Amino acid sequence: MLLYNQIIPLNKDKHRRLRLNSADGDTAFAAKTHYVPVAATEFFQASRDYPLIFAGDTDGGPVALLGLRENENLFSGKNGDWAANTYVPAFVRRYPFVLAKGDEGDNFTVCFDESYPAFNSNEGEALFEENGKYTVFLNRIIDFLQQYRAEMLQTTALVERLNALDLLIQRDLEITTRNGERFSLRGFRVVDEERLRTLADGKVGELVREGYMGWIYAHLVSLNNLARLGERLPASVDVDNTRPDGEGANTETEPEVTDEVQS
After folding, report:
1. Residue 75 lies in a domain
2. In what order do the strands lie in the sheet with 125-126?
3. Under a CB-based contact definition with an 8 Å cutoff, are residues 99 and 145 in contact?
4. What pLDDT was estimated at residue 1?
5. Would you state the pLDDT for residue 244?
6. pLDDT < 50: residue spans in the chain
7. Would you state the pLDDT for residue 227?
8. Residues 63 and 38: beta-carbon distance below 8 Å
9. Where is region (Disordered) located (predicted)?
10. Per-residue DSSP letters for the chain?
11. Separation between Cα atoms, residue 144 and residue 142, nearest integer Å
């Protein structure tokens, strides 16, 4: 799973003394991530900073393009800080926690990336009280995870709607670097403006009422950020074509676990 290396269920007995000592704004864990999934509800904010595009296959969800090559995030600073005055995607902000599907239906488990070095037993925010109850800190995290999951379900519905209306098309995206080089990014889909313009009035009205039209236009506006992304690339760097259609590029699905979190 993108960003995560060793996902395990959170357990009040095993992890009673676990603490998280990560500094605010420290996103060094995402320094080698050149795209992340984004929820449709993030489009308005994220479209100011990133190109928002859809992964290449029919199930592919929206992603924010962070870099032009694999293992390169042009918004991650040397000290692990995110670029100033830019929106940090929720996928990044929720790390190192994630909800995972349990054995039964809609049952979900709070999990975390055990490999994240900020976890320890001495410093930082505690996850459990001495009596095993969740701390205020952990409850806030769980609220965020649940909200994120709900927003990703909305995103899945958006992708299904766009596919049903045949509005997504494959397109090579052009980037210009600081030194004037032009190249294409392949393996993406974008909304076809011509198909959108010729959509039947009734269908357009449905998209507006469902709240999808605003997200569609935010996506289209975000494509102007391709040029800005090229400007972030150091002039001395050669760029290879990149295709964020591998693991993590699809509309995110929760990992599955068999061990339940104990509350």
Report:
1. yes
2. 119-120, 19-20, 125-126
3. yes
4. 86
5. 52
6. 236, 239, 245-248, 251, 257-263
7. 86
8. yes
9. 237-263
10. -TT-SSEEE--TTTTTT-EE-PPTTB-GGGTT-SEEE--GGGHHHHTTTS-EEEESSTT--EEEE--SSTT--TTB-TTSBBPTTSPPPHHHHHTTEEEEE-SSTT-EEEEEETT-TTEESSSSEESB-TTSPBPHHHHHHHHHHHHHHHHHHHHHHHHHHHHHTT-EEEEEEEEE-TT--EEEEEEEEEE-HHHHHTS-HHHHHHHHHTTHHHHHHHHHHHTTHHHHHHHHS-TT---------STT-SSP---B-SSPP--
11. 5
Confidence at residue 257, expressed as pLDDT on a 0 to 100 scale: 47
Hey, how many other C-beta atoms are within 10 angstroms of the C-beta on 20? Answer: 19
Q: For residue 2, is it within any domain?
A: no
Q: Which domain holds residue 196?
A: 7-232
- Here the tokens at position 185 are 């990014």
Structure-block tokens of residue 73: 């995030």
**Residue 57 and residue 14 in contact, taking contact as beta carbons nearer than 8 Å:** no
Residue 237, domain member (yes or no): no
Q: What's the number of domains the chain is made of?
A: 1
Whole-number Cα distances in Å, 202 to 124, 161, 229: 54, 14, 37
Which pLDDT value is given to residue 242?
Answer: 53
What's the one-letter identity of residue 124? G
- The verdict on residue 212 lying in a domain is yes
Angle (nearest 5°) at CA 185 between 191 and 168: 15
One-letter amino acid at 5 equals N
Among residues 38, 1, 35, the alpha carbon closest in space to that of 156 is found at: 38
Position 254 scores a pLDDT of: 57
